């Protein structure tokens, strides 16, 4: 197999990891491991929005490749599939065509359906509202708040708006609908509803991966993830605060 083919396989695997929320040390380790499985020396540098790879064969033929990754999500299932693919290559090298087919099947593997994601979102708000000393009626209100928030944010995501505005709007919806539920039914405590509902927006995986990267010595990548998490938290907080401020002045 040529150096170019191995580089393409490794970069494709690394980009799947990056776009699905894998840690930096995992991405670089997996990409280098795939190249080594085919007998190549490799140096990989993973950044927040792309991967840089330099490979060299026994004849000192060296190739440097780069792949940019823009859309991101969190999908631990795809990360596990790539890890399994990388481990199997050490004992069973596959052809270029088979490797690309396997990676394409991983990239196109089915995700949870929209109704399942909505159900999980609503249950998250319900459980956390109860967890933070909310009553049963607060939890039920959180279900409707999470439902409205998820439906709207899912729709506006298709318009390619900035991440900050998306989370700001989501926070505004949560704050506004929670306050409205309290106005319609005073026994509902809007603070408990807000606390439970915003859990569907908090970047727990991003923050955890940032901590892992710092622990493994990838300070720039870890700080970048911290900044991303901070932007999301700030946007959500600003949205909720704006809704509450408008609600207090209006009522």
Automatic annotation (TrEMBL):
Localization: Cell membrane
Annotated membrane topology: Multi-pass membrane protein
Keywords of this entry: Cell membrane, Membrane, Transmembrane, Transmembrane helix
GO terms for MF: transmembrane transporter activity
Transmembrane domains' residue ranges: 126-152, 164-185, 192-211, 223-246
InterPro entries according to UniProt: ThrE-like_N, ThrE_Dicarb/AminoAcid_Exp
Similarity remark: Belongs to the ThrE exporter (TC 2.A.79) family.
Record protein name field: Threonine/serine exporter-like N-terminal domain-containing protein
Organism: Clostridium folliculivorans
């Amino acid at each position: 197999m040529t150096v170019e083919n191995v580089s393409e396989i490794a970069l494709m695997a690394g980009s799947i990891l990056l776009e699905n929320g894998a840690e930096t040390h995992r991405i670089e380790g997996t990409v280098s491991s795939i190249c080594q499985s085919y007998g190549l020396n490799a140096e990989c540098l993973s950044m927040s929005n792309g991967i840089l790879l330099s490979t060299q064969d026994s004849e000192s033929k060296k190739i440097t490749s780069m792949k940019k990754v823009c859309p991101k999500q969190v999908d631990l299932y795809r990360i596990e599939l790539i890890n399994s693919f990388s481990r199997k290559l050490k004992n069973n090298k596959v052809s270029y065509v088979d490797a690309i087919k396997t990676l394409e099947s991983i990239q196109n593997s089915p995700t949870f359906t929209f109704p399942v994601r909505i159900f999980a979102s609503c249950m998250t708000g319900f459980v956390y509202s109860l967890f933070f000393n909310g009553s049963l009626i607060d939890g039920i209100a959180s279900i409707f708040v999470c439902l409205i928030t998820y439906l709207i944010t899912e729709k506006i995501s298709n318009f390619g708006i900035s991440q900050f505005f998306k989370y700001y709007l989501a926070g505004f919806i949560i704050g506004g609908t929670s306050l409205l539920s309290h106005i319609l039914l005073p026994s509902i405590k809007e603070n408990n509803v807000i606390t439970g509902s915003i859990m569907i927006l908090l970047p727990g995986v991003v923050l955890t991966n940032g901590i892992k990267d710092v622990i493994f010595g990838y300070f720039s990548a870890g700080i970048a993830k911290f900044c991303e998490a901070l932007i999301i938290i700030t946007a959500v907080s600003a949205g909720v605060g704006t809704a509450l401020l408008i609600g207090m002045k209006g009522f």
